[in-house]
Amino acid sequence: RLVILFTDELGHISHWRAIMAGSLAGMVATVVTYPTDVIKTRLIVQNRLEPSYEGILHAFYKIYHQEGLLALYRGVSPAILGAIPFSAGSFFVYINLDKIWQEPIVHFTPLQNFINGCVAAGVAQTLSFPFETVKRKMQAQSPWLPHYGAVDVHFTGMTDCFRQTVKNKGVLGLWSGLTPSLLKIVPYFGVMFSTFEFCKRVCLYRNGYIESPLNYKLTPGVDQSLQPQELKELLLRRENFEPRKSALEN
User: Fold this and answer.
1) Ranges of the chain with pLDDT below 50
2) How far apart (Å, rounded) are the C-alpha atoms in residues 109 and 91?
3) DSSP H stretches of helix in the chain
4) Rounded distance between C-alpha atoms, residue 34 and residue 74, angstroms
5) What local confidence, expressed as pLDDT, does residue 180 receive?
6) I want to staple 131 with a disulfide (CB 3.0 to 4.6 A). Which of 43, 47, 82, 103 is the partner?
7) Which cellular component, as a GO term, is one annotated location (predicted)?
8) Using only C-alpha atoms, what is the Rg of the chain?
9) Coil vs helix vs strand at 219
């Protein structure tokens, strides 16, 4: 829906408008699902010998009643801001794939699409990871948890968290934990990207636009600008008006 808002009269969208649409979509998704992310972090950092939460519902109930509704959105600011470099980084890689491989995107193999997803995710996650670090620290810190959630620095807000982290851990402290994060997110996006491209080819093949789901070779004589239903109606009319062959000709 957001992409439609940024398209022109011909249905085209520029790269930078696509980045803006992707960033806004990421922000909306982050805000909607953010409380579950806070609960996940709290369940991870709690003391296993003396757990503060018994499960997801208990954590949600306890955080809401002890710390208030806003506690479920603690750290949402760096999460929203982090969506911008993540989207910008992934789109920057995507729009330059043809230059990297020195061939059109439509000729990419499933292995190339997998590598493309891995590279895009790696670049995007590296650029946005400082915001991820601050977000996790803000989610974990709580006066109701032992040792304030065992956060290594104490802070009053997002800006102070950045400052305290750099002061105590150095600039590279903002990228602490990047390696395990990449080991998770890089193959995830590689599989997702290659699966998306393959499913797109299957849909194009089933609607008659390409000859095979294994490549993007266009079907001869098919107007690629037609909508799927328009293409089906055109092919149906051709079959109805095509002269039938006699048994002898068959």
Assistant:
1) 244-250
2) 19
3) 2-6, 15-45, 56-67, 76-95, 97-101, 110-140, 158-169, 178-206, 228-241
4) 9
5) 95
6) 82
7) membrane
8) 25
9) coil
146, part of any domain: yes
Tell me what pLDDT residue 124 has.
Answer: 92
Q: What is the DSSP code string of 141-166?
A: --TTSGGGGG-SS--SSHHHHHHHHH
Tokens of 155: 């802070």
Q: Which of 51, 34, 54 lies closest to 149 in space, CA to CA?
A: 51
- 3-state DSSP assignment of residue 106: helix
For residue 84, how far is the Cα from the chain centroid? Answer: 12
User: Residue 56 has what pLDDT?
Assistant: 94
CA dihedral 30, 36, 37, 39 (to 10 degrees): 150
Look at residue 204 and tell me if it is in a domain: no
Instruction: Name which of 202, 208, 201 is nearest 233 in CA terms.
Output: 208
Output the pTM of the full model: 0.79
Does residue 194 lie in a domain region?
no
pLDDT single digits (tens) 46-77: 887 788 899 999 999 999 999 999 999 999 99
Q: Note down the domain range covering 30.
A: 2-176
Supply 224's token pair. 């690629």
Q: How many domains does the chain have?
A: 1
Domain-embedded: residue 186: no
> Could you please report the per-residue DSSP string of 27-50?
HHHHHHHHHHHHHHHHHHHS-SSS
Residue 44: CATH number of its domain: 1.50.40.10
